[in-house]
């Protein structure tokens, strides 16, 4: 059981790494982003793309400053709704499984949660 769980966790980690690397190399995913980047990143992108004047930059920055918390709030709300939907689906799926399958399902869910926490810790460590 432990061997299978370790193998599953390893496969998941490799898959996540592969996906992350693919996204990092995808030129379509390198567009402007507000999340996780400095205050001026979107403005820098707009300035380079459209050759904005300093006056235009001064007028656009407050627009971006006003929009950013709205976008962040919508994303947070969406994350909470998605989490609730996933938890509901997991509960329904688990109810269909046999006791043996439920044990495996629970172990799989724990492994996923452990990997999520590890990614979060790595992300936090990279910010420091």
Helix count from the secondary structure assignment: 4
Name the beta content range.
Answer: under 5%
Structural class: mainly alpha
Q: Mean of residue pLDDT?
A: 82
Please give the largest β-sheet: none
Helix fraction by DSSP (H/I, runs of at least 4): over 70%
- Which stretches are low in confidence, meaning pLDDT under 50 for 5 or more residues running? 25-32, 34-39
The string of secondary-structure elements, in order, is HHHH
Please give the alpha-carbon distance between the first and last residues. Answer: 37 Å
The total tally of domains equals 1
What's the total number of strands? Answer: 0
Question: What global shape is seen?
Answer: elongated
Q: Radius of gyration, rounded?
A: 21 Å
Describe this structure in words.
- It is built from four helices and no strands.
- By secondary structure, it is mostly helical.
- The chain has one domain (34-127).
- The longest helix is centred in the middle third of the chain and has 43 residues, at 54-96.
- It is elongated.
- It starts with a helix and ends with a helix.
- 1% of the residues are buried.
- Residues 25-32 and 34-39 have low confidence and may be disordered.
Q: Nutshell version of this structure?
A:
The chain is mainly α and 128 residues long.
For the structure shown, list the relevant keywords.
single chain; elongated; mainly alpha; 128 residues; 4 helices
Topology:
Layout: H1 2-25, H2 41-50, H3 54-96, H4 99-127
